[in-house]
Structures
1.
Amino acid sequence: MEAMTPKKLTWLLAILLVAGSLSFYSALASEKKTEAETDSSVVVIVNLENEIDDISSIELKRIYLGKINYWDNNGIILKATLKTGSSLQEFWLSSVLEVTTREYQQIWLKNIFTGKADPPESFATVKKVIEFVSENPEAIGFVSAADSLPASVKTITVDGSNQLKREDN
């Protein structure tokens, strides 16, 4: 069995804290929806320097589940996501990745401890996701179609479509 590195221990603690706070974040998210979260569609973004313009939904899912870790140019893919509890994150998990929050956390615990992949960077706001993608040429993220994007970020199509549709309950 592989020894636990400080990085793996840090990620384990972070994931356990997130899992333990899930009900708190869910309640908070239901009380405080931003304008961006009430929009009905989601777009995938990458840094303007990234050569990709379209991605298959299968590839996108494999990236966010840690099965694809490198771009075609061999650069490591830096995944950006939102913290648990936002409606946008919940849509992403259920509709795009087709997993529950718990399954997603378990997948990443396994990936971390087997050394298969580095977990996505998790941000509290869409603005922070956009900043991360803007500052990292190898980054990928998702935001509401209503969000303003700087010139350093571009949207890419998924299976030829510009937006992933959400159905809010």
Note: The chain has one domain: 6-165.
2.
Amino acid sequence: MKVYLDDDLDSNALIGLLRRGGHNVTSPRAVGNRGIDDEDHLRFAAAQSLTLLTANAEDFIELHEEWMKRQLRHSGILIVYQENNPARDMTFQQIAQAVTRIEQSGVPLENAYYNLNFWR
């Protein structure tokens, strides 16, 4: 899968795990997008046909809904819900495994968003 990370998940450790899993990963740091607005992240990912991976659920669900109303297209949004509780939050390893599982499932990603926590 071609994945673009939101700032909140831009980690060398996660990038390494995703790449070892066979995914093509684009970091906002690598393309000069660190700190840009959420919509600009989504716009970049859509223009490059990348699935956006984020832990910023509320903002990106809202953006998805806005984009659907405006008939704009994106290549999918994968959301990791975190509660700042190490016992319940997904590890980077679990996130990478969930990305692989959702890719292997064949569910349509275009113009959709998924809760990765259900794909552990």
Note: The chain has a mean pLDDT of 96.
3.
Amino acid sequence: MKRNAFTLIELLVVIAIIAILAAILFPVFAQAKEAAKKTSCLSNVKQQGLAFTMYANDFDDYTPMFKNAVTTNATGNWASGGYWFDLLQPYVKNFNVVYCPDRNLLDNGLMKYLPNSASGVYNEPGYGYDDGFVSDSGFGLTSQTLTAGYNNNKTYRPGKNESMIVAPADMVAFGDSYDTGSMSGAMDNIFSGPDGPTGTSKIRHGGKLNFAFVDGHAKLITMVAGTYSAPDGKYWVARASSMTDALKWCYDPNAVADYLSFQSDSSGYPVNSATETCSQVVADWFNPSYFTQVN
């Protein structure tokens, strides 16, 4: 007698095969999607890196300041100024490249970075500037100068002249960051956002973050997450996995912190001494007495 239907056993076998294939393929699809995001992010960083070099060429080889006052046009929308990546916009003319595609913290329900000058709200971009191996240290591309009348007498943070940088092709300019608000790529800020990784295994892009360098090229750097025990507290921080890469946040390994030029607290933030050089600070972060990796 001719049979026109599958038996229950046959259907169950087919379903089991489909389930097995799905279990095999879904992780592959997820990995492919993540690889695409990592590549797209690297492209974003590369485009902004080229804009970074053009900005410096137009401003007597000075790198962008960390943040400047925002100016608006006749309709009240952003025209110029803002954070360091806003200053690069005249050379990029595309806010889409400011937002890391792997960034999962949204502001106002928007995924793209668009400065809102009226409310002062900025959608989080997911990229941070090298303002020092640790923030406000003067080791990076900004200097700290107390300026009367500037932003309620706060610290003015201009860029550095590229002639001061020992190895422009080997110094990080900016890159992947979870930091909220200050858009900093310093090791004590870079993982501090509310969507920051809870351990090394949770770092985006498979633990390899995208960074642009002062000469405009971009590449991945392997990072780790952990805690740093400083004289003034314990911090949740990031660190490049190798000391060679960590030194890429120093414009000069022998540069001394400029904390004392604008604050009286000599304990540092978070360094062991306000007079340490950048290479000494990096060495501290590879000392297990201070840094504890969290997997």
Note: The chain is about 25% helix and 20% strand.
